[in-house]
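Cast an eye over this sequence plus tokens and explain the fold to me:
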Amino acid sequence: MPAVMRNSDRIIRSKQKATEDATIVVDSSEIIHSINEQALWLFNLENDCSGKELQQLIPDLSVSTVEEGTVIRHFGRNNGGQHFPLFLRKNTFILNGEKYTILVLHKSNNQSMSGIEPQKVLDELLDMKFALDESTIVAITDQTGKIKYVNEKFCKISQYTEEELIGQDHRVINSGHHQKEFIRNLWRTIANGDIWKGELKNKAKDGSYYWVDTTIVPFLNEEGKPHQYLAIRNEVTEHKRVVDKLKKSMQELVDLKFALDESSIVAITDKQGKITYVNNKFVEISNYTREELIGNTHAVVNSGYHPVSFFKELWRTIGNGKVWQGEIKNKAKDGSYYWVDTTIVPFLDDTNKPYQYLAMRSEITKRKRIEEELQYSMSRIINVQEDERKRLSREIHDGIGQNLYSHLITINRISAEVNHPLVDQMLSEASEIIQEVRDFSWALRPSVLDDLGLMPAIRSFLSRFSESYFIDVYFDSTLTKRLGSNVEITIYRIIQEALTNVRKYAEVKRASVTIREAEDTIRVVIEDKGAGFDKEQLLSNGVGLISMEERARSVNGNINVKSAPQKGTTIILEIPR
């Protein structure tokens, strides 16, 4: 040891000899530098323990947090491992640039209080008692558990008077919630001189229950045996209620997640669309491993079936914090395709901005295949109907119509030679029959639709419609090219059916038809400002809504009907290009 340290030893020992107090000197690392004989006796030690940690003698004491010159109460641990109460005071000094602390120790009993500012200690103890009584539920029991003292907060929460509690044990507020082994362990702990901490459910006098976060501190006699217990409690009933509710909610969420994982294809993405979670069903249907999916986007399963605008609208919806629902065709790793009925739910942060998205899907590949087969069958039926209409129209026009026209020529020749009222009547009736046949043939299938296309056919129809029913129809179109035959027939028939409904039910003199051509959609709008309908009335009156919907579906389109009594009707047809 350096000479300077030997010199410090002499100075420290001289300080110890000047007092009869038990003292321990520790360095800045709280390692024992020296210990006097009184301290050795206090801790029942036979040999010097210099060089050891102070924690071995005074557990849970942080010297740096103790205010210098203030007496505090703590617990020491003797050579036999037993805890005993003591008072200590801290003083520091600097020697040769090193900082040391002298701890002056006194065993906590009536005979050891002299000489360490008893009034100051008493004042501090009274202040601590006041603070405890104001902030916590306090009770003191003897070594058998009989209550010796309770404060006002104990009486208030238990609803018992002080007289009803003193002399009783804590069974008076036992709720019966805890098992016997729990209580046995509590008593085993404090009876061994150790502090017990935990939560207890108690029962008040009126039968209500309350929870308390409890600390029970044994007070030990000179033999290290408990002679009484101080119980300090804080009510945590609301906290327990919230925790229990939270646990229940968490369990419900776990159950919900389990149900979702068992029934649905589930994925979670961050706000950029990067996949952060997939369940087993997603892995199974996509044929990708979880490692291949996590960190990727859903572009990995993009089938290319949907247009770019489809996904733009999807992201616009969920990006605004709204739920999106629809059907998506995806592509698995092996190249096979599958359909999923999808619901995407945004999770919003404190600013109502999405921070992640939960996508729940159900496979509908089989259903979509059946729908496609039905749509194909429907398209075939409509095509067969149109072919038959076309054939009948041609036969009526070229057969019956031509024969009637020949008869009209013959009647004209007769009228030139014979002047008789019956001949004039025959001439008039023949002309009317020919016009009706032409109208019937045109209604079945206008030849202009096949020969010249959709625009001339619509204009021709609107002209005939206005002349026949005195309804002015405004028409506007941005179409510049011919469409597919099935699409043109569908648009023509839906306009024809819609205007027929206007004529029968709307009670108006004006209507409008507009056709707009977008990047990936043909949009047709037929509108009137007439009587309008209830939606159910539209179906029950058989005004052709079902027929229009079937025709729209036959070309992958859809019909949207908006109507209300006395507010007119708008029919919107949208067909993908």
About this structure: Residues 1-19, 110-116 have pLDDT under 50 and may be disordered. Residues 365-417 form the longest helix (53 residues).
